[in-house]
Amino acid sequence: MKSLTLPPRRFVCVAFALAGFAAAQQAASPLKLVLSQLLVQTVTKNGKTQEEFVPVSAVHPGDVLQQSVKASNTGRQPLKNIALQLPVPANEVFMKADESVYRAQYSIDGGKTYAAAPITRKITVTENGKTVTKEVVVQPSEYTNVRWVVPTLNPSDSVTLTARFKVR
C-alpha cells in the first residue's frame, strides 16, 4: 500500500491556494480564517459504526480527509458576501461538502466559474455518423473547487464549513 507523508508545509500551500482568502487575510482584515484537516476513520464501538476524526500524519489511497475552514469576524462591523473556497488537492477527489448552513457551489474549471450541483456540460459525440451535442451531468469526482458564500458574518460570529476528499 502506497503511503504519502504530508509535510507541514502542505497546509501553507493549501492556504495560499485559497484564492478567495488572499484579500481577506491582510493584516488589518477583521476576517480570521483557520484551515484544518483531519483523517476520517470508521470504527465500530459497542456494535455501532461511527466516525472518528484523527490528526493526519500519513495518508493512503482510499483514505478520506475532511478539510474545514473556520471564518470568524473579529471586527466591529458585519462582513458581507464572504466567498470561502477550498480547492480539491491534486492527489485527492472531491466527495461531498457540508450544506447544512450554506449551499455549496462547485467548479470544474479550477475556480474560474461556480454553479450549484448538479453541474452539466456540453459534449460533442458522433451518433450514427452525425455530430451531436449533448448535455451531460459532471460527476462530483471531476470538481476542482468548492465554495460557499456567507451573506453576512456579524461581529464576534464564526462559521465552520467542511468538505471531504478521498486520496487517490
Short description:
With 168 residues, this protein is mostly beta strands.
Task: Summarize the helix and strand pattern as letters.
Answer: EHHEEEEEEEEEEE
* Main pleated sheet: 5 strands, antiparallel
Overall structural class, as computed from helix and strand content, comes to: mainly beta
Enumerate the spans where pLDDT stays under 50 for 5 or more consecutive residues: 1-24
Number of domains: 1
Strand order of the largest sheet: 3-2-5-12-7
Helix content: under 10%
Overall average residue pLDDT: 88
The tally of strands reads 12
Radius of gyration: 19 Å
Per DSSP, what share of the residues sits in E-state strands of 2 or more residues?
A: over 45%
> How does the overall form come out from the CA principal axes?
flat
Number of DSSP helices? 2
Oligomer state of the chains in this structure: single chain
InterPro entries: UCP014979
Keywords: Signal
Protein name: DUF11 domain-containing protein
Signal peptide: 1-27
What secondary-structure arrangement, pairings included, does this model have?
Elements: E1 4-5, H1 9-17, H2 19-22, E2 31-45, E3 48-55, E4 58-59, E5 64-73, E6 79-87, E7 92-97, E8 104-107, E9 120-127, E10 130-137, E11 145-153, E12 158-167
Signal peptide: 1-27
Keywords: Signal
InterPro entries: UCP014979
